[in-house]
Input
Amino acid sequence: MSLLPADLESPAVAKREILVELVRLHAHALLRMPWVQTVLVLGIGLVIRSHVRPDIFLGWGALTIGMEVFRARYAARLLRLGPEVDPNHAHTVFVTLAGISGAFIGTGSVIFLPLLPAQSQALFGAILMAIPAAGVAVAQSSRYMVGAYAVAILLPGSLTWGFLHASQFLGVTVLTTLLCTVLILVAADGDKLLLRSILIRHDRDRLVRDLEQRNADVRAAMELAEQSAQARARVLAAASHDLRQPLHALSVYSAVLAARPSPDTLSEVSHNIDQIVRALGNLLNGLLDLSRLSAGYYVPERHAVSLDTLVSGVCAEYRSPAAQKGLVITEELTPVRLMGDPVAIGRIIRNLMDNAVKYTDAGAIRVGIQVQLRGGDTWAAISVCDTGRGIPAAEQRRVFEEFYQLDNPGRDRSKGVGLGLAIVQRLCELIGADVTLESKVGDGTCFRLALPVVAPVAAPHKEAAVAAAESSLISKRVYVVDDERDILTSMRTLLTLWGIDVATAGTPDEATRLFDTQGPPNLMIVDLRLGAQEHGADLAWRLQQVYGTFPILIITGETSSDALLQANEKNYTLLQKPIAPEVLRSAIVAAVAQECPGGGPDPKLDECAPA
Amino acid sequence: MKILVIDDHALFRAGLRMLLSTIGHDVTCLEASNIADAETLIALHPDLHICLLDLALKGEHGLDAIHAIKASAPQVAVVVVSGVEESSMIRRCIDAGAMSFIPKSVAPEVLTLALQHVLNGVVYLPEQIVNAMSTIQPRPLLSPRQLQVLQCLSRGLPTKMISRELELSEHTVKEYIALVFQSLGVRNRTEAVIKASQLRLQEPAARR
Output
């Protein structure tokens, strides 16, 4: 049957459904039966009262009415119990009760028929025949109930009739059988009708459910659209204010310049313009990031991430700006590996660190990772706590709003643009993380980022291989050549964290000296631009001619140049700036691993770990 | 000349200060970022001439600042310098006693010009406001005294202060004001200020 709804496709389910419906309908019909039976007994009493003993008749009447009262009470109990009722059991009980009830009525014919004159016999017989016919309506469409009821009533009656009128025995038997058969067939038809009505009801329910679901979907979508429209309007208003303000200020400075200011003023003007332009740049970048996150262009990635390594890398980046303000960064990082988006997590931690450094004048920034159990799930909690000025309770919710800044009444954009935490929140929503804050004015602020720990699901072999490769970083010798001291410092910090034995050089000469005194490394990381005549790829090539083919990683911020071309020709691995610690780490792992199978350039340095 | 700049945007304030001291002679600039600081400075400097005021202060509205200044130091000429530029707001500022209104969005040369006007005691209002009034009327002939009264009105001085400044009786000042209104074809002070800006009326050179 093509109409069959999905949840009714199994015949057993359909059958049970029908039975439940049947039991319910029958129970309802039974509630009326005591009254019907009382009227029936009165009617029969009027017909045969002059021929039978009143006490016997009343006894029979009371028995049948009592039986109906019993059935009605059982039915009422079933209805009260509702869905707890086992329909199979209830149906069996109903069939049995129908049989007993019919038998009680049928007994009447055995007792009374012989006592009646022919005319009353006929009338009584007709009434008896009518009772099971009416019973079809009461029994709804249960063949078994109708069968039990009809046979129990008609069998004693027809047997008695046949006994009294032997010549009519055959006829009566045939007609009674016919009646029973017809009644059962009618009930079977009713059964089909019931099935159809249940199917229709199911269809209707499903349609209503679908419609409600769709309505809810539409409502939710509209609500979301409205919310995002409001948020967009708010951001737009704040952004237009914040974009116009520096423009107005620039216009004033332009007027100052046109008015030929004194040299002193000139230097102040240039300093202020510089600040305004920087702030504008930050603002535009922040807005772009935010719009990228909001528009859903950013699809979070899922990689195996060593959270502690990632966080410690970010801390290394902030060590120097923190030190400039006299702040100490302390780390307490429980090692955690999970599946997550290293870029997003890194960005979140960076924004939190940024705020911590910005809003703390003295003291320390404590960064920690703890593993927590929450309702059976494991979460990694990254905390960034400062000893800064704190956030008043009333403002703690608002700090995540775009353009909301504490304690910056002049909206001085050199203090940031007020988008950092908004970006944090968006990113958290995207990667399924939670960010909360705890703060006390004067004591400091703690931001906590909770990440669900989904264990890395990469193939175990690969995992083991990666782990082995990473552990192989320990005490590898790596030379870093870069002409920027800041970069050398942060690289040294980062690589040392990974257990690498780092040496650094600021010029090609220093690098050459390093090779002269300490020999070739397991890996050389070199910036393409060295500020000298020789660029990174040249230097690497020259040293390789002398010391053999040790692995090279070239770092560059360029996208096209002759130097880049040369680096490409020599097949050196290139890393584009800015480089996330995760990326750097995996590049180092890959480069060091590459060195091993081919054997070291120098047998002394062949440190490949035994498998 | 002492000028107080009230704006919550530090870099804008600094820019205004530099511009004023570059284009004006002998300008001393004071700065405030909120109404309370401004009131303190106004109380400390009774010889303050002009106050440049932003309307959008953090959590405060510049209109309240105009009322506060006009209540405590009516002789200070208030010039609104604001990013807001709806005509209704400009009118409300003049109603409250402001002498001029310079939108922040004007071109740099217009800003310089407007500030020069203001330093010279000339009313400056944006064109949208000025153009809204009919200009068919010929330039009215005002006597030097009448010009002085108009100038005092523009600065937002109450009648009593005008009479003190011009050494006239209040009654006479009121008559002058009625005459000025009549000559300009205006009904109140706000319209008179707009008209003055439209006609580029300047106080007589003798008074400077």
Observations:
- Chain A is about 60% helix and 15% strand.
- Chain A touches chain B through 27 residues (CB under 8 Å).
- The domain at 467-605 of chain A is CATH 3.40.50.2300 (Rossmann fold).
